[in-house]
Write a structure and sequence with these properties.
The chain is of the alpha+beta class. The protein has one domain. 16% of the residues lie in helices and 25% in strands. The strands form two sheets. A two-stranded antiparallel ribbon has the order 1-3. A two-stranded parallel ribbon has the order 2-4. The structure holds zinc ion.
């Protein structure tokens, strides 16, 4: 699973359908990040089963 965060920010996104999913100027990594925070919208989408993930 891929995670993205905007450069200069500490919030990781993992749902491609998140309003704040970075599409430019971002870091992408595979696997769970070991630092920073997870986006609240991504977390709630995940809890609701509406999170579209990128593998
Ligand atoms: Zn997000």
């Amino acid at each position: 699973m891929k995670y993205r965060k905007r450069n200069g920010k500490d919030t990781w996104h993992f749902c491609t359908n998140c309003q704040n999913w970075p599409t430019s100027d971002y870091d992408e990594r595979e696997g769970k990040p070991t630092y920073g925070e997870f986006c609240n919208e991504c977390l709630s989408k995940d809890a609701n089963g509406t999170c579209t993930k990128k593998y």
